[in-house]
Amino acid sequence: MPKRVLQGTVVSDKNEKTVVVKVERRFTHPVMKKTVRMTKNYKAHDENNACKVGDIVMIQESRPISKDKNWVVISDAQA
Questions:
Q1: Are 46 and 15 in contact (CB under 8 A)?
Q2: Residue 36 belongs to domain with CATH number
Q3: Which residues belong to the signal peptide in this entry (predicted)?
Q4: Do the Cβ atoms of 10 and 51 come closer than 8 Å?
Q5: Buried b vs exposed e over 38-62: b needs ≥16 C-beta within 10 Å?
């Protein structure tokens, strides 16, 4: 099964080798038929501490790295 890849914006880079990425998804509400925006934060592993706040990055699902870190930064769209 292929690993999921998501695109989001870095909202925090204060942790060592970890960034918090905000991913937004849009969908049509099944009853109201209105477009709804939902956001979720993911902790992602950033080996070289290369990402800064505001960067748009791609993250990929991976094995558990820590208690709540299951994603890895695979590319930086800004660089």
A1: no
A2: 2.40.50.140
A3: none
A4: yes
A5: eeeebbbbbeeeebeeebebbbeee
